[in-house]
Design brief:
The chain is mainly α. The chain is built from 9 helices and 2 strands. GO terms for molecular function: peroxiredoxin activity.
């Protein structure tokens, strides 16, 4: 357990994590919450390709360099084609994604940007055309969970690539 630093004080503005600087190593605090997020992710039975695409797209939208880096590497390790990863930022115009993937990506964008326009019945109908109820709940949990991870890593400045060794991501062969 780390020594508590009172509100209004900063123990170290940046700390080292495997040679990289970050504001706070958040997994050391609220450990039960951290473990619960990991357990939630592990319990979701959505197709791994969909998970990878959605996590990467949401991370792009939220500007989380750590998560973009991690999810590109994970997708590559799971066999995703590099061209599709390059097209993900422009998936609306790309022909490389299935109708189901496109529905998942649109749902991910709608939920991630919920404050901009809300969720309309037409949005729900569009995603339900491709996902049964159980799949849709799992997809929504994936989207919500990656939004939490993005916000943690952006808030505490987790450096991209800083956990590659622990997570086995160096095997992706990306520098």
């Amino acid at each position: 357990m780390k020594k508590k630093v009172p509100a209004g004080q900063i123990s170290h503005p940046l700390i080292h994590l495997f040679g990289e600087l970050m504001r706070l190593h958040y997994s050391q605090y609220a450990l039960d919450t951290y473990k619960a997020l990991l357990a939630l992710e592990a319990s979701l039975t959505l197709d791994s390709t969909l998970k990878d695409l959605v996590k990467l797209r949401v991370s792009q939208i939220n500007g989380c360099a750590f998560c973009v880096d991690m999810h590109v590497k994970e997708a590559k390790l799971h066999g995703e084609r590099e061209l599709r990863l390059h097209h993900l930022a422009v998936w609306h115009e790309s022909t490389l994604f299935t109708k189901k993937e496109r529905a998942a990506l649109q749902w991910a964008e709608n939920l991630t940007r919920i404050s901009e326009r809300g969720i309309h019945d037409a949005d729900y109908a569009a995603v339900r055309a491709h996902f049964d109820e159980e799949e849709l709940v799992a997809l929504t949990h994936v989207i919500n969970t990656i939004n939490v991870w993005n916000r943690l890593n952006v808030a505490f400045a987790t450096p991209a690539g800083s956990m590659d060794g622990l997570m086995g991501l160096e095997k992706a062969g990306l520098i």
